[in-house]
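Annual report, structural modelling task.

Input specification for the flavin-adenine dinucleotide complex:
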Amino acid sequence: MNFPRDLIKGNIIPGERLGPHTSLRIGGPAAIWAEPRDMRDLKKIVVFAGENRIPMFVIGGGTNVLARDKGFKGIVIHLGSSAFKNIRIAGTTVRVGAGYSVPALVRLCCGEGLSGIESLIGIPGTVGGAICMNAGGSSSPLYKNIGDYVSSLKVMDNKGNVKTLNRKALSFGYRSSNLSEYIIIESDLELGKEEKSALKSRCSKFLRLKKDKQVLDGLSAGCVFKNPKNSQFTTGQMIEMLGLKGHIIGGAQVSRKHANFIINRGRASCEDVLKLVNMISKKVMDNYNISLELEIKII
Ligand SMILES: Cc1cc2nc3c(=O)[nH]c(=O)nc-3n(C[C@H](O)[C@H](O)[C@H](O)COP(=O)(O)OP(=O)(O)OC[C@H]3O[C@@H](n4cnc5c(N)ncnc54)[C@H](O)[C@@H]3O)c2cc1C
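The model returned the following structure:
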């Protein structure tokens, strides 16, 4: 791809491997890896991609992404520069950049006595990724989704126009949002007020629960599949009942701790993970007549 290196002030890296930018550590090269330094840079990239019909993908922390072995024949945009990591607190409103880390955001809010998002403490990745995915916890009312707290969003459309979307224009579902056409730049979160000590102990409790249930030390992308609607079982329970915990294909393995997690044992390829995904999907369909939907995004 002929990308003018001097188009932007930020970093442009042709052929950057995606693996190191994902929590699964899997994935071949992006034709172009772009790190805009500011909004002007971002607009230039988006306009260039539009004019030249080049596919784009925005990556946050890469914690919900499976990148293909052959890579991505387009521009992968990463909002890693400080211009996209601003944070400002005014009363109970937090204005935070899309590149800001979610666990760091939760810690900061708890330290300021701002409540609501404590259950997100153990979710890795960035604010932009979390809002796009409406990241959150299980169906228990104890757990919240980040979309519950978004009061407005600053976004860029695929022509480079910046817009503000207010609450009414936003729609959040189970690990989904209506934001796939946009690049999320910044969000206003409306939080509550509570004693700092109560918030901190709640965070510790949520982290403990997550450590007990999930695989936080291995290489994974969190839950691979969504839980099906109207099923008495979660996806993890079905995979476990099918005896697939620990099942290995190549370098990929169904976690022994949480059956909806696939682990890279070190040298897994995307192909290994996809073979496991297909095998699990087929067995769940054959045995439970349920068509599983992927939670992870494949690029
Ligand atoms: C150990 C582990 C535990 C996890 N636990 C949970 C959990 O409890 N609950 C949960 O919901 N998820 C969980 N996840 C999944 C993942 O962490 C979340 O989905 C997270 O919010 C993704 O954020 P990210 O920045 O890494 O996004 P990425 O993985 O980089 O991207 C995810 C999606 O968001 C889009 N995106 C990213 N940034 C932007 C932006 N600025 N504008 C527009 N779109 C954007 C991407 O294009 C992609 O479609 C877990 C993952 C791991 C590895």
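Residues 270-288 form the longest helix (19 residues).
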